[in-house]
Design brief:
The complex is a heterodimer of chains A (273) and B (189).
Chain A: H1 3-8, H2 11-16, H3 22-34, H4 36-55, H5 63-72, H6 89-166, E1 170-177, E2 185-191, E3 196-203, E4 211-219, E5 222-228, E6 239-240, E7 248-255, E8 267-272
Helix pairs in contact in A: 3-4
Chain B: H1 2-18, H2 22-44, H3 47-63, H4 75-97, H5 102-109, H6 123-128, H7 132-143, H8 148-155, H9 159-188
Helix pairs in contact in B: 1-2, 2-3, 2-4, 3-4, 7-9, 8-9
Classes of the chains: A alpha+beta (273), B mainly alpha (189).
Chain lengths: 273, 189
């Protein structure tokens, strides 16, 4: 250890002036007991301080001495302890303060981390929620779009049919019931110019699951199939037919899906054009 | 010579005080009370308070005489420390009450001349040789109880500078006391 350097560091002066930390106080007291040079220097500084303080001397009031002597008579002297009279007044308060600060800091840090973890977890949850909500929304959008398209389609078909039925070139033909079903009644709307028809089932018995009505056009005595009738929709859409000349329309009950030739025993309605 | 005598006398007095001898304590009081009172007064600056503190300190000196270790310094140094610490404690209490008071801060930052015992003739000139900046350092460390770091913060001077200035201040003071001693001897003998 460089004693000269230690002496010149100013720590001994700091110690004597009371500006040393508790760590420095222990250090000076320990080293001065080991190194005579340090001890000598320290004593010399203390000596200087003592002499300096003597220049500040002011006599206290004379009665103070009596008060003090009277007081100490009732006070027992304490046994020797290691307590050092040298201490740093503010040192401890700073320490406690910094401990308190450090505790506060730790609590703050823990709280922050907790909050961060919480926020992170919440963020993940939100993200998951958002993703599933997005999926649902996409499905709903698609289904909504489908429904809308279907509605638009139906609306277009209804408009088309309305126009067709209102058109001057469209003629209406009544198909009346036969012996098989005298009460039955169907109307066929036919436009020769556009070769389109619409069928309205005014009164036909409900077909079973195995049966379906089929429309025929009779041209020169021969039946030509014009397609099957929908089982539930009693007013058909506008449909194209391949004939530009029809003598009569007839409807028979056929097997489900229709037949190539009509079953005349199950002829329900017929009407001439 | 005088030093050694004082030392020997003090050792005898201390031994007697430890036995509970109030007479010896009375001698110590007579010998040091002026210096200690002057120190306390310089720190707390109020007569009544300084008297209370001096009383407390002498009671403590009596009570704790067994904790005095001559290996750590003279009896006077030990007593100085007790008095200084009590005064600084008291000063801090009052300063806490006045915390934020600007006039006090102004008082702190103004270079305060060290008060001189009027009985000691010719000292002012020598003391004035100690530059203001060094005096302020001694003032803050010893009489206001600041740590070196606090002094550095308060005066806005680097910590290293505070350390070197406090050292040179003490070194100069040491020379200065040699001069005082010489002048005292020449005046009195």
């Amino acid at each position: 250890m460089d004693i000269k350097q230690y002496i010149e560091s100013g720590i001994l002066e700091s110690y004597v002036l009371g500006g040393a930390s508790s760590q420095e106080i222990r250090e000076v007291e320990c080293l001065s007991s080991i190194y005579p040079e340090i001890k000598t220097e320290l004593s010399s500084i203390q000596d200087g301080m003592e002499k300096y303080v003597q220049t500040l001397a002011v006599s206290p009031p004379p009665q103070l001495k009596d008060k003090i002597l009277a007081q100490i008579k009732n006070i027992k002297q304490a046994a020797s302890t290691d307590e050092s009279p040298l201490r740093i007044v503010k040192d401890e308060s700073i320490k406690t303060n910094s401990n308190r600060k450090s505790n506060l800091y730790k609590i703050g840090l823990a709280a922050s981390i907790l909050l961060l973890v919480g926020l992170f977890a919440y963020q993940i949850k939100l993200s998951n929620d958002l993703s599933s909500t997005n999926n649902e929304l996409a499905e709903l959008k698609e289904s909504n779009s489908n429904s809308t398209n279907q509605l638009i389609d139906s609306l277009n078909r209804i408009k088309q049919r309305e126009q067709f039925l209102a058109d001057a070139s469209t003629n209406s033909f009544l198909l009346a019931g036969t012996e098989v079903s005298p009460e039955s009644k169907v109307r066929v709307f036919w436009s020769k110019t556009s070769s389109e028809i619409v069928i309205i089932q005014d009164d036909l018995p409900r077909p079973t699951a195995e049966n379906q009505y089929q429309l025929w056009g009779l041209v020169d005595g021969a039946p030509v199939s014009l397609g099957t009738l929908d089982k539930t929709e009693l007013i058909s859409e506008v449909r194209k037919i391949s004939l530009d000349k029809v003598d009569a329309f007839a409807i028979t009950l056929e097997k489900d899906g229709g037949s190539a030739t009509p079953n005349l025993e199950q002829l329900f309605v017929i009407g001439n054009t | 010579m005088i030093e050694t005598q004082t030392k020997d006398t003090n050792e005898i007095l201390i031994a007697k005080i430890k036995e509970g001898d109030t007479e010896s304590f009375s001698i110590i009081y007579d010998k040091y009370s002026d210096a200690l009172y002057g120190l306390i007064l310089k720190i707390v600056k109020q007569d009544d308070l300084a008297q209370d503190i001096l009383q407390e300190c002498f009671v403590k000196i009596w009570e704790k005489i067994n904790t005095y270790e001559k290996g750590k310094g003279s009896l006077f140094t030990w007593m100085l420390n007790i008095c200084r610490n009590k005064s600084i404690d008291s000063l801090r209490k009052t300063q806490r009450t006045y915390k934020g008071n600007e006039s006090m801060k102004n008082d702190l930052s103004r270079p305060t001349s060290l008060e001189i015992n009027p009985d000691t003739i010719g000292l002012r000139d020598i003391l004035n040789n100690l530059s203001d900046e060094k005096r302020i350092i001694v003032e803050y460390l010893y009489f206001k109880g600041y740590t070196q770091q606090e002094t550095s913060d308060e005066l806005n001077i680097p910590l290293g500078t505070v350390k070197t200035r406090s050292r040179t201040a003490i070194l100069e003071l040491k020379d200065y006391f040699t001069l005082i001693l010489a002048s005292w001897i020449s005046n009195n003998i």
